């Protein structure tokens, strides 16, 4: 795994985390926010917004604030 680039490691993280973040399982809301936050911090704002929205719709306050800043 050490020979992967940072972007490849991040893509692997997304591939592994996204199914959980879209589920109804405990912690999924936080996972959705975390994905959005990582994407936003990587200047992938348009990709981050749906994750923030998913988390905000389920009551995550920081995600709602992030959406407000985006608009």
Polypeptide structure, described:
- The chain contains four helices and no strands.
- With 71 residues, it is mainly α.
- The mean pLDDT is 94.
The residue ranges in which pLDDT falls below 50 over 5 or more consecutive positions are none
**CA-CA gap between termini:** 38 Å
Number of strands: 0
Mean pLDDT rating = 94
| Radius of gyration over all CA atoms, rounded | 12 Å
- Percent helix among the residues? over 70%
Strand fraction = under 5%
**Biggest pleated sheet:** none
| Global morphology | flat
Tally of helical segments: 4
| Sequence of secondary-structure elements | HHHH
Oligomer description: single chain
Based on secondary structure, the structural category is mainly alpha
Lay out the secondary structure.
Elements lengths: L5 H16 L6 H14 L3 H13 L3 H10 L1
Helix pairs in contact: 1-2, 2-3, 3-4
Q: How would you sum up this structure in a few lines?
A:
This protein has 71 residues and is mostly helical. It has helices at 6-21, 28-41, 45-57, 61-70.
Name its key features.
flat; single chain; mainly alpha
């Amino acid at each position: 795994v050490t020979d992967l680039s940072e972007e490849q490691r991040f893509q692997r993280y997304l591939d592994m985390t996204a199914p959980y973040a879209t589920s109804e399982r405990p912690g999924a809301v936080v996972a959705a926010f975390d994905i959005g936050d990582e994407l936003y911090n990587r200047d992938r704002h348009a990709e981050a917004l749906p994750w923030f929205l998913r988390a905000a719709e389920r009551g995550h306050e920081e995600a709602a604030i992030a959406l407000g800043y985006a608009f």
